[in-house]
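Students often ask why we bother encoding 3D structure as a string. The short answer is that it lets us treat folding as translation between two languages. Here is a chain of 665 residues written in the first language.
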Amino acid sequence: MGSHELPLRGVVACALLWALLGVVACLPEVGDLCRLGTTACDGSCVELDRDPDHCGACGQACEAGTSCVDGSCAPPCGMLAACEGSCADLATDPRHCGACDRACPSGAPCVDGACAESCGGEARLCEGSCRDTTSDEAHCGGCGVVCGSGATCRDGECACPDVLSDAANCGVCGQACLADQRCVAGGCRPHCRGAVCLPGEVVWGRRIGEDGTVDPASSYDQTAYAVDVSPSGEVALAAEVRGSIFVGPQSENLGTGIGVMIARFDAVGRLLGTTMLAGPGRERVRDLAWAPDGDLFVVGRHNATGGTFCNLPAATDEEDGYVVRIGPDGTCRWGVAVAGTNNQFLEALALDDDGSLLVAGFSEAQATVVPAIGNSELVDYQTGRDVVVLRLAPETGALLDSAGLTGDGNQTAVGITRLANGGVAVVGSYDAAWTVAGDGLAESAADQPALYVAALDETLLPRWGRGYRVTSASSSHIAEGFSVAATAGGMVVLGEARGEIEIDGDTVQTNLASRDLWLAELDLDGQLRWWRFLGGAGQEDAGQAVVDERGDVLVVGTFQQTMNLGASDEAGGVLEAGPGGDLFIAAFTPPTDASAPPSASYNRDVGGDGLKRPRRIALGTGTVAVAGDFRDGIDWGHGPVWSPPGLNQGNPVGRFDALVLSMAR
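And here it is in the second language, the structure alphabet:
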């Protein structure tokens, strides 16, 4: 410490020796009874030039890990010399070459404590000193090239002890994996059961919800209704949110809002940005799709009477439909409204090969399309609910074509796709006898909803319609269409059914106690190629079906209790749900001769304590993205779904939180 105690009895004894014997050697040389070169501080004699508790002055302490050098706090120098309050290597430092303050001429290096004309051997002059760039971690391979933490410089290259399995240095030094990834063979990989994720396993997941500390009385449901994957692998999610919203591992607080939130994630789940579509009313979302240039098309409805987003006109009565194009920075390119005196529902969209935007929905009154440019147009309407189909110009939002499929009852459209022959198919439900392009669709036995598929040509003129009605008389028995996806020679339809259903003139009995899913393929003329029910001991709810580049059909939905889709044990086997109902994904390869319905080539489930509700699925390269919601926890056996304050938990007060999953295929 550079200090010593001087007890009072020692001072008295020394003074007596001096008085009686003339001994003066023990007498302090200066005041305060401290010897020359020390100072009395807090009852001790200290050396202010080197005492870290009294460095330069009494009570002036150095921070932990530093030392006192010449009365100034400085890093501990060890084998180096303390020069002007800093540590210097007298063998190489041109400012202190051989001794402190002995500077070399400008530009001259210090070699072995002497100024020289140049560096010798493999050394290079870096920042005034000769450095061996083959082994110097601060100048590895060149001046100023610093190796990362834990790395060494070997032969002029930074090297880490383990770049094959170290998540902090995966592949190269300093390249860290995300929290829900591991390093496998030098690459960041998800925490799947093996080195490679099996089809249907979750690659990453993100939760969108409140922070878990809100008052139950003021908590809200958050639900994701739409998802799409760009060619580069970015995932876009659209959710209806309310309250103080947090997204992803970054714990970003988006503030208090009521509206539609669009979140973008990169291919490994990092949050890239968010956009809020919000006005003074209630905004809803139902679908979105990437534009080729990175913009997003979004459809939904709102009830704002003023101050709307994207300069949409105020809602005329209840809820109006909207279509908007949003840039990566949240800029609104254009907005189209479907207005009327009652509710106007826009439910689904698809991109045609020419880039035009196809939109499907239904209206409860005469609908008026208000395009971004051009004049407003009326869509055919009769009574109840009627189907609305639009074609919009992607660059301007101009209305190119429109169609209204009308009837005496309630007709809805919730799915749309572009067909291989250039036409369009829509799917939904109807509840009264209906004629589409001359095809009669019979009504159900007790006015229950019936499932339909309708095809239109390139100009949106109806070509044919097919209906699948309920023949049992129970009012709880239903058949409803949820999604349609194009195949090479037709379309795949996903719906829900309960009770006795008429399929091509034959009556087929499904689960009488709860709903099953109905999956079918029709050709371009509306003829059934194959169909099957997806069901089990409990109730199943439809999400969506898509068709991949191989022609396989991928389906997501919810199931309860158990479900057997024919997959082998290695591919998922019989699925067993948790207490609330699990999310499932299944893949089917259509039969070549349609002699028998396909079994699942694989199926997986995402479990947990509460209910999981997938809404949409979108194809990526080697993956699919799934959007929906969950509550009371979610778990697939590996990796976290981010959820503050803990992992794998839902909203603590039983509300739903939005969810996006990336799953292998």
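Translate back mentally: DSSP finds one helix and 53 strands in the chain. Keep this in mind for the problem set.
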